[in-house]
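Cross-posted from the bioinformatics board.
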Amino acid sequence: MSDFDLSLESADVRPRPRLDYQVLEPRALKSGFLTVLTWLAALLASIPLISVIYMLLVQGGTRLFGADVIEVLTGLPPAGFELGGGIGPAILGTLVMVGIASLLSIPLGILAAVYLGVLEPSSKIASTSRFLSKVLTGFPSILAGVFVYAVLVIRFGYSAFAGGVALAVLMLPTVVLAAEEAMAQVPQRMKDAAYGMGCTRTQVIWKVVLPTALPGILTGVMLAIAGASGESAPLLFTALFSNYYISELAEPTASLSILIYNFSGMPFENQIELAWTASLVLVLIVLMFNILARIVGRPKV
Amino acid sequence: MAKLFQAAESTGSVSGPPSAGEYLNDHVFRSIALSSAFLIIALVAFILWEIGREAMPAISDYGLGFVTGTTWNVSKEEFGVLPEIWGTLYSSLLALLIGGVFGISIAIFLTQDFINHRVATVFRTIVEMLAAIPSVVFGLWGIYVLIPLLKPGAEWLHDSLGWFPLFGTNLSGPGMAPAALVLAIMILPTVAAISVDAFRRIPYKVKEAAYGMGTTRWEAILKVMLPTASSGVLAALVLGFGRALGETMALAMLIGNANQISLSLFSPANTLASLLASNFPEAGRVEVQALMYAALVLLAITFLVNVAGLAVQQYTIRKFEGKK
């Protein structure tokens, strides 16, 4: 006889785990129930989007895809009980202001990203401005308008330029963070190879880092443009609104988003229909830049 | 020295030390990049300084009474933003409650192997498109779809449960409920995206270990995955809350711009951002100063919330990737 009795093992009365799957076991039921709930949550969350798109197509589509499409896209906004009319000045105004914002924010953003991502990623200035860029992405867009109002509008009045600057403040952090991310992903050995050839840091940046990171940078730029096109709060009291086509940068300018805001509260059928049409055009512009962002960001084979 | 590089030239090599011109270029370009990075810091400082400077007269006139005052009367020059602060926090909390539950559910749905790759792409596209729809379009949708849809339900709730403070008034048009719902829809993509990121950071072996212990899928999610991702999910909620606090246009169109403090979901209210949006365009000198003060209050609240959210997010990244 050894010290341990082997027969004890077989007499073990401890419950054995049942390893076969029990469909009606409480915890399996609970799991199934939660799975159903999650599916419901996901489906429920997609209802608003479907509803928005449906309304845009039905309410805005009648005018945009109708016979008077030219008038809608180029005409002046109607006043009061007037019928017809269009959103031409607003489309042009939005494009002009987003253009100004892009000209201001993209070069500055990419240059700052060069410093943050390549030149001195861990210096005090870099970490501070990286942190502030992140803070700025959560910055309420209306405060950009308040800021530009204090700096420009009080002195020079409402203008397309002021609207563009306000949008630039909002685009800047998106461009900086996306460009930095893209540049930080350029493999170190590619840069080392260029340094080994005797390149200056500037040459490495222009000839190696920027071309390699270009798809990522362009994605960030396109997303920033898409976001800026849909903004309305910063334009409310910087660009204001106008019923006519923009003729110079120093005058109040129409934009699609402000047109939607102004027309949404009007008691006239025609204006409300135009607000939906303008919404459809605005969403199409935003989606176009979003899709562009995906196309340019796709890695080349 | 010169001889050395002559040798290099004769072999067709392109390597060599930079010329004086290239040195100069390098210095100029690097200084430009440095000043661009510095400009971002300067911009934030400038924003704070400008809004602060414009608000200064109002700050010295009204002091802290501005934050606790409840009237906004331009002709009497009496200004207080307590109802707006209440409305901002109340609407954002309601939105966070709804948007948070749905956002985290969707993050779990997308990351915990419920659906195959193709279906996941469909849902991911839906969430991304939701983020792409401009605020003002949601406002328009809220006015013409959501409010008419909510009205019968609100009426019924008020009639049968009117003693309950949440249903204390009737929905006569714009109000807290439609505003908070649209706000929830708008922060859902933020919450979902950051939570998805948090779940993705968990190494796959953690889930395998849980399954190996014989857990059901939901036991693994609730007892292992969610606690492990908790700090990232918390960051998602805080940053989503920050988004909600600053959201302007949809709220300006849906909340009703009423200067009152009420618990009722169906009464009109106001938020700091929509106060700015609706009063700024036609404000006179004195009101502009008061509005600048209100902007400063909004800036302070969103800044605190965002910094807290970023700090939690940073902590999460460190936890999973080691010190960075």
